[in-house]
From TrEMBL:
Name this polypeptide is given: DUF4386 domain-containing protein
Membrane spanning residue stretches: 27-45, 73-96, 108-128, 148-168, 177-198, 204-222
Stretches the record annotates as Disordered: 1-21
Pfam families listed in its UniProt record: DUF4386
Start-end of Polar residues biased regions: 1-10
Length: 252
């Protein structure tokens, strides 16, 4: 990721639209998000979900002991998800940097922060296979994983809200994508704060508003590969009567 030079102000950045194709960052972000979906589904709803029985430590201990390798494979998939999250953060920064570099960078940092929290949550799961025969402690470790992950969702929610704002203002994406991403962000925000304010109540709003994330994947892998941002941003500025470069800077 590149940063602003001392001579550049936040106000000047939009007047310097990055000219070029979004093909590479869109392909990287879309592919990584698609892979994340697969690994997340297997990691969370596969071994972790099927081998852990809430409220039944004895059965959990037996099931994990009988399928320890399978459980560990689920943890490995979740670690891969963290790696892919870092890749997505960098790629989405490149996709939206031409819209507002500062906001795009902030969105990337929030996703990276979420990834770090999620990794801490995954570490809790590593305790489960070690606690063979200790069902109650296994369940406590899984509960710690869920609790830390839920809190991390607040950071992910902010990331989605910022990306939704960028998509809405971009000009190269339909505004509906920004709206859907914003709704998804609000859903994760409700779940994250719900886990803090009402830990005994599972809200689960995000499972009903995730369409924005799915739509983003399709846009990146279909439309994003054919999008060039320079001409689009310049046309928007001309229509708005904004300068295409800072005053006093000659054309190249």
């Amino acid at each position: 990721m590149s940063v602003l030079t001392p001579s550049e102000s936040a106000r000047q950045v939009p007047a310097h639209p990055a000219s070029g194709s979004l093909r590479r960052p869109s392909l990287i972000a879309g592919s990584a998000l698609l892979l994340m979906t697969v690994f997340s589904i297997y990691g969370v709803f596969g071994p972790v979900e099927t081998l852990v029985t809430a409220g039944d430590p004895s059965r959990t201990a037996v099931d994990v002991a009988a399928s320890e390798t399978l459980f560990r494979s689920g943890i490995a998939c979740l670690i891969i998800v963290v790696i892919l999250d870092v890749i997505v953060a960098a790629a989405l920064f490149e996709v939206f940097a031409s819209v507002n570099r500062a906001v795009s960078m902030t969105a990337a940092w929030f996703r990276l922060a979420y990834s770090a929290v999620f990794l801490v949550a995954i570490v809790q799961l590593l305790e489960v296979p070690v606690l063979l025969g200790k069902g109650e402690q296994m369940l406590l470790a899984v509960e710690s994983f869920n609790r830390i992950w839920d809190i991390g969702l607040v950071l992910f929610a902010v990331h989605l809200l910022l990306v939704g704002y960028l998509a809405f203002r971009s000009g190269f994406m339909a505004k509906i994508f920004g709206i859907l991403l914003g709704i998804a962000g609000l859903g994760y925000l409700a779940d994250g704060f719900g886990a803090v304010l009402a830990p005994d109540l599972t809200i689960g709003v995000a499972r009903f508003v995730f369409i924005g994330e799915v739509a983003l994947i399709f846009w990146l892998l279909i439309k994003g590969l054919r999008t060039t941002v320079g001409p689009i941003m310049k046309e928007q500025q001309l229509l708005a009567g904004a300068p295409t470069r800072p005053a006093g800077v000659p054309d190249a």
